[in-house]
Write a structure and sequence with these properties.
By secondary structure, the protein is mainly β. Helices cover about 5% and strands about 30% of the residues. The strands form three sheets. Strands 3, 4, 6, 7, 9 and 12 form a six-stranded mixed beta sheet that branches. A four-stranded antiparallel beta sheet has the order 2-1-5-8, with no helix packed on it.
């Protein structure tokens, strides 16, 4: 699964759209999402020390040629990502009951050592959860109800393609999306979003099997 390098910012006042589309945004060999627990970990569990961002996203810097997204307080940001079969081919993952959920957390006080366990399912919408340094901005199904990829053997793909036309810029895909509103009271120059896709499973005995993907995005507040 790849989070899109496309962002839309929709102004509340005039509905102007600012578009960013730059392949250079992709980091770590083109992989923007960070798997926790990582493949190969013996006990396959998330540790209290697991950081929420991949190493190259733990500090607020931009790659050359990759402009930082700008948004104002109160603006709506659309985060887009491909479903890569996690919607249209869900039946090929029998241990999964759904495509999972997406959580987006926001903070103006991010730290390189922020951990998944300190934030995910801890920060809440009113900012009183855990260490109180951030808020839950959005929680939604991974499947936005309209997205699909070109999985031609899937009846689900064909049904959605007939109902929802693809964007020519996305080829035969229709990307999923999550809407996030930047808090109106943000005063910092930079605001960080932690995007978390929780695709964990329940095993036959009821035990949880963690499978979480993250990416971290810094936004310049204007």
């Amino acid at each position: 699964m790849v989070l899109s390098n496309q962002y839309f910012v929709l102004s509340r006042a005039d509905h102007a759209i600012v578009f960013r589309d730059n392949p250079a945004f992709l980091q770590d060999g083109g992989i923007m999402t960070y798997l926790l627990p990582p493949n190969g970990r013996q006990d396959a569990r998330i540790l209290p020390t697991d950081r929420i961002c991949m190493p190259r996203q733990q500090r607020q810097w931009q790659s050359a040629g990759s402009p930082r997204l700008h948004a104002c307080p109160g603006a709506t940001v659309v985060l887009r990502y491909q479903e890569n079969g996690h919607v249209t081919m869900l039946s090929s993952s029998p241990d999964k009951s759904s495509s999972g959920e997406v959580f987006v957390y926001g903070t103006s006080a991010s730290r390189p050592d922020d951990t998944l366990s300190d934030i995910h399912n801890v920060w809440n919408t009113n900012g009183t959860g855990g260490n109180g340094r951030g808020v839950l901005l959005a929680r939604s199904d991974f499947d936005d109800g309209k997205c699909y990829g070109p999985n031609f053997g899937s009846p689900f793909f064909r049904q959605r393609q007939q109902r929802f036309k693809p964007d020519p810029k996305q080829g035969m895909n229709r990307w999923c999306h999550t809407l996030v509103v930047i808090p109106c009271d943000v005063r910092a120059r930079l605001y960080t979003l932690y995007w978390v896709w929780d695709w964990s499973s329940r095993m036959a005995g009821g035990e949880r099997k963690d499978e979480i993907y993250t990416t971290c995005i810094d936004i310049a507040i204007t």
